[in-house]
Amino acid sequence: MTKKENYWTSPRADGRWASQREGSQRPSRVFDTQRESWEYSQDRARDTGGEAILQGRGGQIRERNTYGRDPFPPKG
User: Fold this and answer.
1) Is residue 18 a contact partner of residue 7, using CB atoms and an 8 Å limit?
2) Are the CB atoms for 33 and 17 separated by under 8 Å?
3) 24-70, pLDDT tens digit by residue?
4) Measured between alpha carbons, how far is 52 from 55 in angstroms, rounded to an integer?
5) CB 21 within 8 A of CB 44
6) Rounded to whole angstroms, what are the CA distances from 8 to 21, 66, 70, 72, 74?
7) Element (H, E) at 53
């Protein structure tokens, strides 16, 4: 089974957007738009069964999507 990896989409100082695997030192890819970077992060997280996290310009998490099996699904 593939290792679950989380991917972050976050803004850069140069105005571009980075998609980066959690724990890595460098971005996986850099994009001109947030949409491109977010779609890339979602695809990579989906491939590994991990989580995609979207960080806004203010530093707060705007959205997060978990892929694969959730070990503790909510009841109801």
Assistant:
1) no
2) yes
3) 999 999 999 999 999 999 999 999 999 999 999 999 999 999 998 76
4) 10
5) yes
6) 6, 12, 19, 22, 24
7) strand 51-55
